[in-house]
Specification:
The chain folds into two domains: about 130 residues, Fructose-1,6-Bisphosphatase, subunit A, domain 1 (Fructose-1,6-Bisphosphatase, Chain A, domain 1, 2-Layer Sandwich); about 90 residues, 3-Layer(aba) Sandwich (D-Maltodextrin-Binding Protein, domain 2). The chain is about 30% helix and about 30% strand. The protein contains seven helices and 14 strands. Strands 4-3-5-6-7-8-9 form a seven-stranded mixed beta sheet, with helices on both faces. A hairpin with a 5-residue loop joins strand 1 and strand 2. Helix 1 packs antiparallel against helix 2 and helix 4 packs across helix 7. The termini are far apart.
């Protein structure tokens, strides 16, 4: 485990413990729009503060909440709470997303964590995606479910016509509301689909974890699946709606 990955794990463990044992009522408070456009909660800002403490020595941080923090040749793309609305509603599907890109624009490391389940996914430029749990040193290849019955459709609420088209094709899905986390689980589900504006905070780490899967990235949609036929079928449905 590289020093950067170790620092990411430590930051996630610190945040996880605080959420589980010392959750503060003030963390529910909303503040102002962050760099990513969403209104930041005080939980978002607390998590950002922890990551800055652990990661600032590795490079310049670009956070969804506060924008550019610090300096350095490497860029660290951070979403301190992925799925903030879920966290604010005690819905157990929220975590964090961190990616480090070197001065040449090459991704060096990616870490996505689910604070609710304590699942954590890591990848470096030299190694394939590994899955483990917080407070454990046991990592292994991500779980694969060959006959998964559901996909994950992020932003489904904004795309009713595509929802209907997926239903007609029998492509079942859930819409959990945390893009990086959904991408991290892409090895186990039937597919992951996102429709909407592409934000680097949502995808920098999550897509890196999808190595070896069928990945389609366009300006306004992203499709990931273990099966090329599934990814292609979904893209045909999307293009059919555009005609």
């Amino acid at each position: 485990m590289t020093p950067f990955i170790q620092a990411c794990v430590q930051a996630n463990e610190e945040i996880s413990q605080a959420i589980e044992h010392d959750f503060l009522a003030k963390w529910y408070d909303k503040t102002e729009a962050g760099a990513g456009g969403d209104i930041s909660s005080r939980l978002d800002l607390y998590a950002e503060e922890v990551f800055v403490k652990h990661l600032s020595r590795f490079g310049r941080i670009e956070s969804e909440e506060s924008g550019i923090i610090g300096e350095g040749s490497s860029q660290i793309i951070l979403d301190p709470i992925d799925g903030s609305a879920n966290a604010m509603s005690a819905f157990p599907y929220y975590g964090s997303s961190v990616a480090m890109v070197n001065a040449q624009g090459v991704l060096e490391a990616a870490v996505v964590c689910n604070f609710a389940t304590k699942d954590i996914f890591i990848k470096t430029a030299q190694s394939k995606t590994q899955q483990g749990r917080l407070f454990s040193q046991d990592f292994h290849p991500p779980a694969v479910v060959p006959n998964a019955e559901i996909g994950l459709f992020e932003k489904a609420y904004a795309n009713p016509k595509l929802v209907a088209a997926l239903d007609r094709e029998g492509l079942k899905f859930r819409a959990p509301g945390a893009v990086a986390l959904s991408l991290a689980y892409a090895h186990s589900v039937n597919y992951v689909l996102f429709m909407g504006a592409f934000r680097i905070y949502d995808f920098a780490a999550g897509l890196a974890l999808c190595e070896g899967l069928e990945v389609i990235v366009e300006q306004d949609y992203v499709i990931v699946s273990k099966e090329k036929t599934v990814a292609d079928k979904i893209e045909v449905l999307i293009k059919g709606l555009e005609e």
